[in-house]
Each structure stands twice: as structure tokens, then as C-alpha cells.
Model the fold of this input.
Amino acid sequence: MQDKRILIVGAGIAGLSSALMLAKNGNDVMVIDANENWEITGAGLTISGPSFRAIEALGILSDVMAQGHTHPGIKVHDNHGLHLKTLISPCIASQTGAALPGAGGILRSTLHAILLEHLSRLGVQVQMGLKCTSISQDLLRPDGSVQAQVHLTDQRTLSFDAVVLGEGLYSKSRQHLFPKATPPALTGQACWRVVLSRPENVDHRFFYLGGSVKVGLTPVSNEHMYLFLLESIPHNPHRETAELQVILKSLLSEFNGELSSIAQSINAQSHIVYRPLESHFLSDSWSTGCVVLVGDAAHATTPQLASGAGMAMEDGIVLSEEFLKAKDTQEAFHRYFLRRQNRCNMVVQNSLKIGQLELARASAVEQAQLVESSLLELASPY
Done:
């Protein structure tokens, strides 16, 4: 299928990846996003070998490598800073046969800007501040196809051959279209993220495991890294923005050595992102008629395997591939679901298992083993 009119709802990584691939394949793509501007929430993104494979398929590899950071893998430490093991991330062959980087990082805002630039080159602009209020589907067309009538907040009603919903974890459209779907569930953990200047010796991802919290450092450029911290929050306390830097520095106080000095660089001006972790997986179907879910709207994972963005990019790639093979949208969406179901579920479930090990304060070695086996599984084709 080509020359289809397709609406992408949500300009996050899943939505933009889907838009880019479907536009490359000759479809007429429209992208809308509810936000009024491009203030990107979040901090940095870790890039695994499988995610680099998806980045190459999107056609943005050179930009990501130039503006991000690449490194061999993870240096695992205990909570006292003792180096235990270096996990070399599996390298995957590129389309040319050369090895792609095994691991890397990039600022979320930088990746977002790269995707927008590549979409712009195809003549696709994101329409900001525009929401979908309802979707109705014509199931009785004479040719047997399905078309969606989408009602927008600017009072327009437009027709599309397909609607791709990349609205994220709290997708209201998912709640309407899949009313029996289990809502996102709190995992008992929260994630703290903050972008900081990168010391020269932080040339890999660093993990600090086995303590009361899990801490990691990921280089995202030549100058910057982001620090993440996973904390147990059984009661999900409310925290004011003004107190975040005090709490984060307190949580880091059990660490000695370099991590201690890094913690001292956090101050009231640091842009700290704090978020209780939630997860969900839609197990039965990700589509109804000519409407389909991508990314966190279908399979929101926690960050333990650093694969949320990678899975979102893969969704857009696989969806576009199945569009080229299928006779109609329903077949394309079903085949897309079959290809993505087990892989995305593994990421969701293994990330939750690693989180449970963290909550149980399992040994750093046990945690690292599950990370390593999961990354090896992710290296398989999608």
C-alpha cells in the first residue's frame, strides 16, 4: 500500500519514526501534537546496539553519531564504587556489513530535532496545539476498505485511510478504543534524571548496583552525560519541584568517590526530571479498523533495559514495512502486531523483573546477568 492518507497523532519518538518511514514510502502523512511548543520533557536517552540498528533504518545514523555519543557498553560497579565487570554490548552488523556501535547516548531533545529535520526534508511539518477529539470509522465502504473520520480541535473533520496513535502512556484514544485494556500500573519505583557536564573518564555507561538505590551515568555528547537514579517509592510521595535537588543529593549521599563529587555539582539550577515509573502492555490487539497504536500507547516499559525509544523506533519501521506488503490496513496492522508482540512484551517484562531485583536489593552480579541476557535477545532480528 502506497499513496495512502495517514494521520499521526503524537509527535514523540514513536509518532515521528512512524511518520518518517511512512512518508518515505510515498504516503501522504499529516502529523499533529497536542503540545503548543517543542519543550521536550525528559533528559537523555541511552542507545543500545539494537536501537542503533533502528536508527540506521530510519536514515538518521550519521546525525545521531555526530550529535550524540558512542561507547562499548556498561561498566558495572557496586554501591561502594568498586568496578565489578564491563558488559560489552553486542554489536550488530549495519546495512553495509560493518559493525554498528554497541551502545551510546543522546539528549532526547537532540534526537527529536533530528527526526523533525528529516521529516521537514520530506515536506512534512508537525501541526502543534492540535488534538483529536474523536474518531469514527466507515466500515461499509463499497470497496470493502475502512476509512476514519477524525474530528479535530480546530473544528475540522478530515478523512484518513489510516490513523497511527503515538500519544504515549496516557493515550486518551487508547482508553476510548480499548476500554477493557488494563491501565498503566505503578511499579514501586521512581526515576530521577538530570543532565550534567561529563567527566572525561565517563567514557562508558556506568552502573552502580546493590545499594538502596540504583544509579547510572550515560554519556550523551562530548560535553554532557545524564545521571539517572532509580528509587523505591512504595507510597508514591508527592514532591515539589523546589525540593527535588535536595532529595536527589540526599539519595546520592551513600556513594563515595567520583559519584559523590558528581552529586555535589547538582544545584537549584539543575533541570531535574522526576517521574514515578508506570508500565503496561496491551496483549490482545493494537488496532481496531484503520486505527493502530505505536510506542508507549501499546507497550510502555520501564527504563531498566534502556529500550523504550528503541522499541518506539522499531514500531515505525515495522509498521511501514508491513504497509508495503499488505493488501489493506487491517492486514498491515495485524502483521505489525504479530511481529512486535513478543519482542515488546519481553522488554516490558524483563525490565519489570530487573526492577524487582533492584527493589529486593539483589546482588549487582544477578542484576547484570539479566541485563546482559536481555540485550543478547534484543540483538536478534525484529
The chain is about 35% helix and 30% strand. The two ends are 21 Å apart (CA to CA). Residues 115 and 371 are 28 Å apart (CA to CA). The first helix runs from residue 13 to 24.
